[in-house]
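User: I'm curious whether this sequence folds into something compact or stays loose and floppy. Could you predict its structure so I can see for myself?
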Amino acid sequence: MPEEKEQTEFQVFKTVFVHCIVIIACPVISFFLSKAFIFDTLFGLNSVSSNIYAAGVAMLILHLALGAFIYRAYFDQPTKTPSKQD
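Assistant: Here's the prediction. I'll summarize afterward.
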């Protein structure tokens, strides 16, 4: 029985860890990619304007990632592991 509890705790830890990495990494990556490729190169905006728009993109991505985490935490049902039958 304790082995099943540890496995479930590890699954929860893994899920939270992955969401934390996504919440931290995706906005930072989206800021720099959108600034460099979309706002600086494609639209040719000046530095201040491209920073502002890229920050808006990063905030949008952050809110989507947080929403996905909250949705999963609230609506996901814990999976039951099949118990051994002797």
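Summary: DSSP finds two helices and no strands in the chain. The longest helix spans residues 2-42.
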